[in-house]
């Protein structure tokens, strides 16, 4: 039986026991069992991620997805857990890992160095900290529990911002074989076949307040300048945090080394064209 089925059964038992105060001892026993199961899942996931990383060299974000989907299947719950793992890993644990500009699985292209992301993160972290201190002081006079809940949410917000910025350093754009992966940290990504690219144009600046079309994946902060716009032959699925998905036919992104990524994409397209031409001539 899958682990998630066991957890659902225990959760059902927990609800039943909650309504029966005379079974309080069993209630705490169930809580202890659930804590053991959750601890087991966490350690087994970490063990699986480390094992995969040693064998494949794939980044943490993809490893955690592979391990969790193997254990729990595909669901919104899994997507939620993956996002939370990413937040805490990239905010607290990623410091021991070097950011990648070269990857044995393909060529990596950074996009955070010339971005305004760092300034954005610092400003909002300061605002959240100031707001947290002020509201904690005010709410504590009314209800101490609510004050601490609000403070914990503010701390989580700061961890999310720090994790997001760190993930942009450790999750660069990738070109491997005939595929290109465009990312915005752990927050969103899209994997494209380069032969599915109809056009690769220089992107235009968006006007202040202008809405981005739903069919466009805008892989950068709005305060940054876009560099490239990819027009696709066929729509492709973009994946975001917490299981968000949508089909897009345009991808707008930026890269620190614009010439290098443009040269690599054109090189792959040229090689792909020659390969197809040789196959037709045989």
TrEMBL record:
Segments traversing the membrane: 31-50, 120-139, 145-165
Keywords for the protein's UniProt record, in alphabetical order: Membrane, Transmembrane, Transmembrane helix
Report the protein name in the record. Uncharacterized protein
Give the originating organism.
Sutcliffiella horikoshii
């Amino acid at each position: 039986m899958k682990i998630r089925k066991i957890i659902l059964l225990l959760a059902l038992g927990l609800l039943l026991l909650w309504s029966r105060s005379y079974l309080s001892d069993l209630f705490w026993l169930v809580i202890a069992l659930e804590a053991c199961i959750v601890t087991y899942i966490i350690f087994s996931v970490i063990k699986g991620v480390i094992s995969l990383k040693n064998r494949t060299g794939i980044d943490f974000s993809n490893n955690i997805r592979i391990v969790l989907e193997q254990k729990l299947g595909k669901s919104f719950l899994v997507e939620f857990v993956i996002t939370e793992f990413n937040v805490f890993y990239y905010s607290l644990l990623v410091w021991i890992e070097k950011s990648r500009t070269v990857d044995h699985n393909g060529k990596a292209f950074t996009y955070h160095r010339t971005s305004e992301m760092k300034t954005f993160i610092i400003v909002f972290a300061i605002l959240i900290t100031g707001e947290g201190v002020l509201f904690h002081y005010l709410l504590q006079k009314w209800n101490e529990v609510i004050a601490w809940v609000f403070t914990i949410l503010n701390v989580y917000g700061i961890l999310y911002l720090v994790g997001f910025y760190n993930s942009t350093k450790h999750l660069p754009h990738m070109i491997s074989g005939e595929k290109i992966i465009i990312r915005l940290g752990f927050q969103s990504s899209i994997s494209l076949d380069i032969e599915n690219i109809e056009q690769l144009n220089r992107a235009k600046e968006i006007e202040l307040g202008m809405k981005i079309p739903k069919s466009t994946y805008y892989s950068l902060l709005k305060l940054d300048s876009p560099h490239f716009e990819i027009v696709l032959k066929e729509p492709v699925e973009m994946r975001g945090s917490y299981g968000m998905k949508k089909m897009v036919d345009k991808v707008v992104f930026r890269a620190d080394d614009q010439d290098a990524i443009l040269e690599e994409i054109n090189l792959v397209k040229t090689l792909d064209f020659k390969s197809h031409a040789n196959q037709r001539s045989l």
